[in-house]
Amino acid sequence: GSDWLSVKDFGAKGDGQTDDSDAIQQAIKTATGSGQTLYFPSGVYCYREVNVVAGRSTISLKSGGNVTFFNTSNNGRTETFVLSGERVAKSMMLRENLVKGTTTLNNPFPNAQVGDLIQLRSNRLLDTDSRGKWVIGQVFRIQLIKDGKLYFGNSVVEDFSYSAPITITATSTGTSSVQFSGLDTNDGTYVITGLTGANAGVSRGIFTWDNSTKTATFDTVWDQVWPKPVAKGDTFEFQRSIEAVHIKPAKVEVHGPFKFMADLSVNNPERLNLRTGLHINYAIDSAVVDIDT
Q1: How far is CA 244 from the centre of its chain?
Q2: How many Å apart are CA 286 and CA 217, to the nearest integer?
Q3: What does the alpha-carbon distance between residue 235 and residue 218 come to, in Å, rounded to a whole number?
Q4: Which of these, 157, 199, 209, 267, could form a disulfide with 194 (CB 3.0-4.6 Å)?
C-alpha cells in the first residue's frame, strides 16, 4: 500500500471555517497505527483540540504547501495540539538508593522494553515558585534489560535517596519557620505531610533545614508556607521517596511548512500556562522542520 494518507480522506476541509478537530485526530491515529505519513494539503485547518497518544510508534506529518492550524477554543490556553508518547498509568515507588553516576536500576516494570523511558522523581526540594514545588527528577532511556535490571544510556546526575517514613513533631509554632524533634540529618530539604493538627493532609517542602537548631523554614516568597499555624505537638511525616514512571515514547516527525497560531513547546505534559499550539511530549529521536509559531 501507499506510504501516505491524506487528512482530507478523513473529512478535513482546511477551509478556515469548518472544525476539523475530529478528522485530524482520526487521520493522525490511523496513519500512525499503519506506519504511514499523514499529508496535509494547503489550507487553514481549524481545531479545538487534537491529542494523539502513540507509544512506541512514529507520528509523521507532512505539509503539501502553506498549511495553517488555527485554534478556535474559547480560552486559548488549555486546548492544545498534542503529539505524545504514552505514560503508563501506574507509577512505582522505589525502595533503593540511586547514587550519582550509577547507570542501572532494579526493574520495577515487567512490561518495559529496550528503548522505553524511565522517569525518576525524588521528593527532595530544589526550589519553589508561583507554580509550586520543584523537586529533583531525571529521564533515562533503557539500553539493556538483563537479570532483573534496567541499564541506561545516561547516568544519574544527582543522588536519589529513599528512607522509610518517620514521624517528626513540632516543638515551636509558626507558618514559615518551625522547629521539629525527631529529625537528625544534614539533608532535610524534603516534602513533609501533616499527620495531626490544623495542617493534617497538607504537604509543604522544607526550604532550608538547620540541623543544629532543628529549624525548618518554608518559602515565603511564593506562598509555600503552612496555610494554618503549626502548633506545638503537631506531627508530620518525613520520608525520602523516589517515584518511577514508565514511558513508551513516540518518535515525532513534523515536516512543514506548518504554521501554528501559538508557541511550540516540548516535553511539557501538564501544559501549564501555555497558549494553544503544537506540543510534543514523551518523544525521542524526533524531527520538527519548517514550523512557524
Answers
A1: 12
A2: 43
A3: 16
A4: 199
Q: Among 1-10, 197-206, 219-228, 260-269, whose mean pLDDT is lowest?
A: 260-269
Q: pLDDT of 122-158, one tens digit each? A: 999 887 776 667 888 999 999 999 999 999 999 999 9
Q: How far is Cα 23 from Cα 9, in angstroms, rounded to an integer? A: 9
**Closest by Cα among 67, 65, 79, 59 to 254:** 59
Task: Please state the pTM of the whole predicted model.
Answer: 0.84
92, exposed or middle or buried, with CB in 10 Å at 0-12, 13-18, 19+? middle
Phi-psi category of residue 147: left, alpha or beta, with phi > 0 → left and psi -120 to 50 → alpha: left
- Which is nearest to 283 in space by CA: 52, 47, 106, 65? 52
Instruction: State the residue for C-alpha cell 511550540.
Output: 264
Whole-Å CA distances, 9 to 15, 16, 228: 15, 17, 59
C-alpha cell at 41: 494539503
- What residues contact 75, with CB distance under 8 A and at least 6 apart? none
| Nearest partner of 205 among 216, 215, 192, 214, judged by Cα | 192
